[in-house]
Structure formats: C-alpha cells, structure tokens
Amino acid sequence: MHPILIRIGPLTIHTYGFLIATGFLIGLYLAVWRAKKEGIPSDRIIDLGFYILLSAIVGSRLLFIIINSGYYLKDPLAIFKIWEGGLVFYGGVMVAVPTVIWYVKRHKLALWSMADIFAPSIAIGHVFGRLGCFSAGCCYGKAAETLPWGVIFADPECLAPLNVRLHPVQLYESGGELVIFLILMVLSGHKSSYKGMLFMTYLLLYSILRFTVEFFRGDEARGFLFSYIPVSQGISILMFIAALAGIIVLRQRSKRTA
C-alpha cells in the first residue's frame, strides 16, 4: 500500500525493509528477555539472533530466486534488489535451522531450550514481516471483486496488480501469526512437560496457517509443485508431519529421562 516510507533526495527508505528490521529488533528483545529468565547470557542470544537473521535472509532469498530462476537469469542484478520483496519464509527456515544447530553445539547450549526461547520471537517477527509484504504489495492475494474487506493497490511502485480488489493475504498471515504468538506466550507461562514444546507448537500451527493462506494467494512467483499445489503448501504438509513427529519423539524422550 505504501512501499516508500521516506524519500528525501537520493535517500529512499522502503517500508518493507523498515518493518522487517522492526520485527527483528522486537523479536530479539523478546528473546533476550526470555533468556534472562532462564539464566542464559544476553550476548549469546544477540549473537545467535544475528546469525539467524543473516541465514534466514540468505535462505529465503535463495529459495525465491530458485523458484523464479527464469526471471533472474534474464536480469541477474535484480537478485540484489531485496528491498522490493521476494523472500520465501520456508527458505529462511531451511538455512536458519542448521545455522542454529551449529551455533548451539559450538557454544554447548541446550538446543531445545534455545528453540523454545526463540519460538515466540519468530512469530512476532513474522507479524511485522507480513505487514512489510503488505506495504510493498508482494505476496499478494487472488482477485476478489465482491469481497467487502478486499484491498486495492494503487501506488505504481507496489508489486501487486494495480486497481484490482484482492484478498489481503498478507494481513491474513500477519493476523494468524499474531494469534500464534499469543498462544505461545500463554503456553510459555506454564511449566512445559518437555523441552521443545513451544518450538514444535509453532511449527505445527504455522504449517496449518500457511497451508490455509496459500488458497488465497494470487502471485505466481511463489512457484508450484504441480499445477494446483504451490511449493509452500507442499512444504507446509512436510512441516506439519515433522512437527507431529517431533512432539511425539520429544515427549517420549522426556518421559524416559524423567
């Protein structure tokens, strides 16, 4: 809706990047606050947070480029125009997870405790990330001419089709992530029966949210496994199965060590 936040002469600040940065800083602050309650040094959380940010940006951009390889082969310089949008969340997860595992093992930290600390931060960060998508017009929804809450993008610098009423799918996902965040914060206030519960709950809930939202997406750039199954829906199914398996395994492991 408003892709440019500030433009003063040659200086341009894109709303997308501003909101991404805001979400990251809020998520990092929350993780530091939660870590202090667990007796974990703040510097470890801050370091890991920046590793997560860097790896997530690289992974999410890389997957988007792979999905849209035809376009980027014709215009290689567009690969670096990250301020225009073009990040696939699941790509970020694929690169960030092994990065976290490497960091945690290197510094002899408890993997699942760290995962639980960061789970609400991922959710709240994603809330702002999707608001960024909304501002840029990327990840837009299907046409919905009679939808009362449909949105119309009119700014010529938006990436969405202009002057067409669309499903506000970015807001659907942002709102869903906010609900997930609140659920995780409520759960974090109770003693967990096993380490990793919050993180697995996040994966489970987000896979359902993303699978559902994909039905209303209208951008072809996200890629398709088949003519009717987007890449993200396929990954959502795998994530749902992995989260269920993780919950079962971690519960059983907790019972054996109790």
Topology at a glance:
Blueprint: E1 4-8, E2 11-14, H1 15-37, H2 42-67, H3 69-74, H4 89-106, H5 111-136, E3 151-152, E4 165-166, H6 169-188, H7 197-213, E5 224-226, E6 229-230, H8 231-257
Antiparallel strand pairs: 1-2, 3-4, 5-6
Helix pairs in contact: 1-2, 1-5, 2-4, 5-6, 5-7, 6-7, 7-8
What does this protein structure show overall?
Helices cover 63% and strands 7% of the residues. With 258 residues, it is mainly α. It has one domain (4-187). The strands form three sheets. It has a two-stranded antiparallel ribbon. Strands 3-4 form a two-stranded antiparallel ribbon. Strands 5-6 form a two-stranded antiparallel ribbon. Strand 5 (224-226) and strand 6 form a beta hairpin. The termini are far apart. The mean pLDDT is 88.
Keywords summarizing the entry:
258 residues; mainly alpha; 7% strand
- Structural class per helix/strand content? mainly alpha
Mean pLDDT, rounded to whole units? 88
Count of the separate structural domains = 1
**How would you characterize the largest beta sheet?**
2 strands, antiparallel
Anisotropy-based shape: globular
Number of strands: 6
Strand order in the largest sheet: 1-2
Run of helices and strands: EEHHHHHEEHHEEH
Can I get a quick summary?
The chain has 8 helices and 6 strands. It has 258 residues and is mainly α. The chain has a two-stranded antiparallel sheet with strand order 1-2. The chain has a two-stranded antiparallel sheet with strand order 3-4. The chain has a two-stranded antiparallel sheet with strand order 5-6.
